[in-house]
Amino acid sequence: MSSTALLREDLTTRAAYISDASIYRRMPAAVAEPRSVEEIRELLTLAREKGWPVVSRGGGTSVAGNAIGDGLVIDTSRHFNRILSIDPETATAVIEPGVICDQLRDAAAEHGLTYGPDPSTHSRCTIGGMVANNACGSHSVAWGTSAENLVAVTVMLADGREVELKAGGSSEQALTEALTGIRDNHRAMLRTELGQFPRQVSGYGLHYLLEENGFDVAKAFAGTEGTCGVITRMTVQLVRKPAQTALAVLSFDDSFDAASAAPALRVRDVATIEGMGGDLLDALRMRPGQEDAGQELPEGGGWLYCEVGGETLEAAEARAHEIRGIVDAAGKVTVRNAVVVTDPAEVRALWRIREASAGIVTRLPDGGEAWPGWEDSAVPPEHLGDYLRDLYALLADLDLRGIPFGHFGEGCVHIRISFDFATESGVEVYRTFIDRAAKLVHRYGGSVSGEHGDGRARSALLSTIYSPEALQAFREFKRVFDPDGLFNPGVVVDPEPIDQGIRPGPGARKFDLTPVHAFSHDGGSVAGALNRCVGVGACRSDVGAMCPSFVATKDEVHSTRGRMRSLAEMLRGENLKDGWKSKETLEALDLCLSCKACATECPVNVDMATYKSEFLHHHYGEGLRSFVGRNRRPMAHAVMGWLPVLARLMNLVPGVPTLANAAMSVKPLQKTVMKLGGVETQRDMITFADKPLASWFRKRAKTAGDDLRPGEDPQGRPSVVLWPDSWTNFMSDGPGKAAVEVLEAMGYRVLMPMGDVCCGMTWHSTGQLDALKREVARTLGVMEPLLEAGYPVVGLEPSCTVMLQDEITELLPGDPRAKTLSERTVTLGKFVADHLDAGGQWPFGTLEVEGHSAEAVCQVHCHQKSMLGYDPELKVLDKLGVDVDVVGGGCCGLAGNFGFEPGHLEVSRTLGERELFPKIRAAADGTLILADGFSCRTQISQGTEAEGLTLAEVLRSALSTGT
Q1: What is the DSSP string of 507-527?
Q2: How far apart are CA 136 and CA 451, in angstroms?
Q3: Which residues contact 902 (CB under 8 A, 6 or more apart)?
C-alpha cells in the first residue's frame, strides 16, 4: 500500500483526532493507522516531504496534550498491536506499541504474570503510550513506572532507520557515543536534579544514563512523549502476581490526613496506597443511579486503598489487618475506621470508584465543570499532606475548586479544577494558578508531572523546576534522536505556551443554540453537554456495553469520544464550517446505535443518543420538507420514524395487516418495497399482528363485561395500566397477551389507554423532535384520566419504557403530566419483583426442563441495561427457578431503526456475533432465549435459528406449574 493510501485526510477523521484527554486541541493534517514497520517508514518519508510534524498516538488518553498535533498523527492502536512473544522464564514480553495494557495483562496471566504499570485507563490505553508518557498506575509502589519495566525498545527515527535501545547503549555506536557525551557533560546535574523520588517524571529521564543506573538508554527514552522517534517494538518486564490479595481501606477525617498517613505504608507486601477524599464521593453520587455509591467505604472524609499480597488468602487478609496498626504506630494522624475485603466482587466495586475518578471529577458535586491542567503533580511522599493543604489554599485564593485523588503512597496527586476557559479573564486565572502551582510544587522538591508526561500542559513549566543546565541537557538529548525537530514539536523542548489552543476556550460556541431537549443537567446548554467529554476514553474499552460501534470498527471516529469531538468542532465552526448542517458530523454520528450505554457507563454520563437526536433534528429540519431537497432525510426516517402512525393507519381497515404479511412473504416484492422505503434489503421485513393488541383487549373485556374506565374495580382488585407500545400493539402481540394474563393471575385489574398512545421513540431515534413532541402531548391527553387515578403503568418494551421514564420530561419539561407518567412507569419485571417483595399473590411455579431447573440465555435490551437495570427481572427469574446466563456485550446490534438502515448491516451483524449469537448457538436444547426488546428478538431470529421469549411469556408458562 502506498504511503498516501494510508492517510486519512478527511475532515471527519481529523476532527475526531483533534484532542486527547487534555484541554488542548490541534487539527491534524492527516491521520494514519499503520499495520507494519514498513508502513511507518513510508509515512515518515511522506511527512518529511510535506513538512508535517509527526505525533505518535495510542489510546489517546494522554491528559497533557501529548498525543495531538497539527501534522501527521500515527495511531498504532488499531492495527499495530500484536503481542509477539511472552517468555515465562525471563518474565518478559515482546510487543508492538498498540497493545492495550489489559490485553498484555490477560495474556501474561496465563503464566501467572502481569504487567506492573496499571493506570486507571488500563482497559484502553496502549503500552506504547504508557512508555512514551512514563505512566505508572496504582501498583507502582510495588512494581514501578513504565520506564522501570522497560527492558528494550526499538525506535524509528526521522530518516526511517530503526535503532534498538537497551541497558548499556544502543545498536548504533554513534548514537551511544553521543548519549555518553551528554552523560559525561552533565553528570553532576543528573545526580542532583533528576531521579530524586519515584514520581519525578517531568522532563527526560536522563538519570538512567548514569553508570550506577546501567547506562540504560531504553529507560532514558521512556517518557520522551513521542518527541524523539516512533516506537516500533518493546520488550517489557513482567512481574509475578501475588498468589492471593486482600484490600484494606482506611478512612480518615479528610484527604490531608490520608495523604499524611500514606508514607508510613510503603512497607513489605503493600502494592497500592491510593488516596481520595470525600468530595470525590460527593461527585460520584450526583451521577444517575449512583446516589448510594460508596456505601462499602468505612465512614470518613478521606480514604486510602491498600492492596496486600500473600501466599494464601489467610496470610494476605492477616497482613491487611495489620495496615491500620502501621499508621497508628507512626503517630502522625488518626485512622477513623478500616475495612478489609477479600471477596472479588466487593473488591472490584471499591476499585471501580477510584478508577472512575478521572472521568467523575470533570463534574463537581454541584454540577460545575472541572478540567485537567494541573493533572498529576508529585512531591516526595513525606511532603504530600502539607503540599495538599497549600494547594487547597491556592485554589481558595483564586476562587477555584477541585477534587484531588491519586497515588498518595508515591506523592502523586490528580486533580480537576473549575477553570473558566470560556472567557479571557478565566484563561488569565488559569495562567496565574499554573504559574503559582509550579512554584509551590518546586518548593516541596516536586515535579509538575508525576506520571503522564509534560505535554502541552506542563512543558513550559520545566524552567520553573529545573536549572538551565537540565533544560540544555534535554535539548541535547532530543537533538541526538531528532535533529530536525520532526517529532511532536512544542513538547518538553522549546515548549508551546500553556494557554495555546485550549479546546473549551473562547470561540467554542459559535453555533450554540436553544435546543429542543431541556438538557436539564447541563444548564440547558448544548455546549455544556459537549464539555462533559474530557476524553478519558472509556468508550474505547472492550469491557461493558460502551461503545458498540467502536467495538465493531476499532475506529476513533465511531467512538463516543470521536463523536463528541466532532460535535464540539461543529459547534465551534472553525474547521467544520457548516454548523448543524455539517456532513462530517453527520458521518461521525452515522454508526451511533443510540444504545444509551454511554449515558451510564461513561464516567461523565455523555448521552450520545440524545445528542444525535438533537443533531438530526437541526440538520434535516422537520416535516415533509425535510424529505425533499439536497439535504433531505433518508427515506428510512419516514418508514421507520413514522412506523407507529403507518401501523395505526394500516389497522383502520380490518385485514390489511394480514394481506400485507402475505404480500411481503413474496421475496421479490418484499425486497422491492424495502428498497423503495430506503430499508436494508438484506434484512427480512418485520411482520404485523393480524389485529392490534388494544383491539383484542377491548373485545375481550367487552365479552367479559369488564369496565375499562378508571374507577373502583367491582371485584376490589387494584388496577394497573399496561402500556400498549407500538411494537407490542401492532407487530408482536404475544407478549402483551401474556402480560394481561399474568397480571390478572397476580390479582390485578388490567387497564389500557382508551385511545392510541405512543412514547415517540422512533421519532426520537430519527431526530424528528417536533413530531415527537406533538405525539407525546397527544398521548398525555389520552393518559390523563389514568394518571389522575394514580395507577401504575407497566411497560413491556424496554426502549419505550426508557422513553417514558427518562426522555419525555426532557422534551416536555413544563408539562406536569409528563413528570407524572415518568414517575409511574415501571418495567414488568420491576412491577412483579415489587409485588413479590410486598408479599402479594404468587400464582407461579418453578420452570423445569426434563427434571432440571430451566436454563436461559438472556439478552438485556441496551436501553434497559443502561438506564433501568435488570436486577428485578433476575430476581423474578430466580424465583421461577431459571438459571440465567446474561449476555454481557451490551447492544444486540439491531437497535431499532439502526440495523434496518442501509450501510449498517455489517456493524449490526458484527455486534450480534460478539457474544449474543455464539451463546445462543452453544446453548443446550430446551434453553430459553429471553429478550424483552422487539429489536433484540428480531436480531436473534434473523441471526440465528432461535426465537426469543419475553419475561411476560416466561411468567405465563410458569402459571401452569403454579399451585
Answers
A1: TTTTT----SS--GGGTT-HH
A2: 6
A3: 634, 636, 678, 679, 680
| Phi, psi values for residue 371, rounded to 5° | -130, 155
Average pLDDT (38-48) is 97
Residue 929 has φ and ψ, to the nearest 5°, of -110, 105
Q: Can you tell me whether residue 632 is helix, strand or coil?
A: coil
3-state secondary structure of 199: coil
C-alpha 421: how far from chain center: 24
Element (H, E) at 764: helix 761-765
Element housing 417 (H / E)? strand 412-417
Q: Is the CB of residue 861 less than 8 Å from the CB of residue 938? A: no
Q: How many CA atoms lie within 13 A of 287 on its CB side?
A: 30
Q: Please tell me the distance from the alpha carbon of residue 80 to that of residue 370, in angstroms, as a whole number.
A: 34
Quote the CA–CA distance of 862 and 50 in Å, as a whole number: 46
| Phi/psi at 30 (5° precision) | -165, 160
CA distance 771 to 645: 11
- Helix 344-355 and helix 278-285: axis angle, to 10°? 90
Tell me: pLDDT of 278 over 90: no
What is the pLDDT, as a whole number, of residue 380? 96
Number of H helices, E strands in the chain: 44, 28
- Nearest Cα neighbor of 892 from 849, 928, 935 is 935
pTM: 0.94
Tell me, what's the pLDDT at 502? 95
Strands 239-240 and 113-114: antiparallel
DSSP state of 722: E
Cα distances (Å, whole numbers) of residue 110 to 86, 93, 105, 414, 543: 10, 13, 9, 33, 19
Chain mean position to CA 133? 22
Helix (H, G, I), strand (E, B) or coil at 854: coil
Please write the tens of the pLDDT for every residue from 675-705. Answer: 999 999 999 999 999 999 999 999 999 988 8
Please, is 772 exposed, middle or buried when counting C-beta atoms within 10 Å of its C-beta (0-12, 13-18, 19+)? Answer: buried
Taking each helix axis as running N to C, give the angle between helix 769-788 and helix 816-824, from 0 to 180 degrees, rounded to the nearest 10: 70
Residue-wise pLDDT tens digits, 713-750: 989 999 999 999 999 999 999 999 999 999 999 999 99
Do the Cβ atoms of 78 and 555 come closer than 8 Å? yes
Measure Cα distances from 615 to 83, 518, 696 in Å. 41, 14, 39
Please report the pLDDT score of residue 282 as a whole number: 72
The H or E element containing residue 641 is helix 635-641
SS3 879: helix
Whether residue 858 has a cis bond before it, omega within 30° of 0: no
Per the structure block, which three cell numbers stand in for 210?
Answer: 548514569
Residue type, 103: Q
pLDDT of res. 665: 94
> pLDDT above 70 covers what percent of the chain?
97
The residues with which 306 forms a beta bridge, in sequence order, are 248
> Rounded to whole angstroms, how far apart are CA atoms 375 and 450?
9
Q: How far apart are CA 335 and CA 257, in angstroms?
A: 9
Please, what's the b/e burial string for 609-631 (b: 16 or more CB within 10 A of its CB; e: otherwise)?
bbbbbbbbbbbbbbeeebeeeee
- Asked whether the CA dihedral 669, 670, 675, 678 is positive or negative, the reply is positive
Higher pLDDT, 820 or 198: 820
CB atoms within 10 A of CB 401: 17
Distance CA 725, CA 746 (A): 22
Q: How far is CA 10 from CA 16, 503, 551, in A?
A: 10, 20, 22
| Beta-bridge mates of residue 447 | 378
Mean pLDDT of 809-837: 97
Q: Is a pLDDT exceeding 90 seen at residue 508?
A: no
How many whole angstroms separate alpha carbon 643 and alpha carbon 464?
Answer: 64
The dihedral built from the CA positions of residue 484, 81, 77 and 458, taken in this order, carries a sign that is negative
864 is written with which cell numbers? 434497559
